[in-house]
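ok trying this again, last paste got cut off
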Amino acid sequence: MASSINKQAVLVSLVGFMLLAEGLASLYLDRPDAAGMTAYRVVHLAEMLVLIVIVAWQFRLQSPESRLVLAGLLFSFGGDLINSYLFNLGFLLEPQTLLSIPFFVVAHLCYVTCFIRLLSNPSAGQPAARLWHWLIALGLWPWLALGLWQVVIDPASPPLLIKLSVGYAFVVMLMGVIAVLLGAVRGRQAHWPALGGLLFVVSDSLIGLYLLDGPSRPVLASQAIWITYFLAQVLISRAPLLRTAQ
């Protein structure tokens, strides 16, 4: 019990550090080309690395769910490297953020698989009730995905961006819908991972709104994206704990 509390304290401390760093950044970074922006992005990558280490340390990869979450975090980190703009990859594709889509697609699919595994156990309710939950969720999924895409993406965007973004909208919304389903079916213990799934949808939506701005998007937008994204990853990383609660 004490060990579990200590691990939770480490995670809470990491979130506290992230919020403190964002607060300081809001005081000193007043524009996207500010002198400290590179250090700001390096801190983001460091925060993700620490989260990856904490998850690997806490779960020891003892279950399929923990391995899926860790894989999702690692692929997300690959996307973070691209989105940090510490490496100029614009010669491959513009905006550079589009190069991160394959990494985040795999990450989302890892989380979807983890959630589905947690929904397939006997403690997830009666089979008939579960069927209705699935029918409702999958029925809403395409409409929510298309709605999100239409709100976020500028119809005047380049054709390649439109094609990639509509596909990604379906993937991220699938993760969000399954996360909500997990929270609805598994009860209070699953509310944190469910909230994480929703925050990931919010973060990706904000990225979509500022996609064409690239690294020149407003600092406050970048902060909102990172705060929602990092909190989403932290909360989703709690999903394997549901396996021990079965």
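PB: full thing came through this time. The chain has a mean pLDDT of 88.
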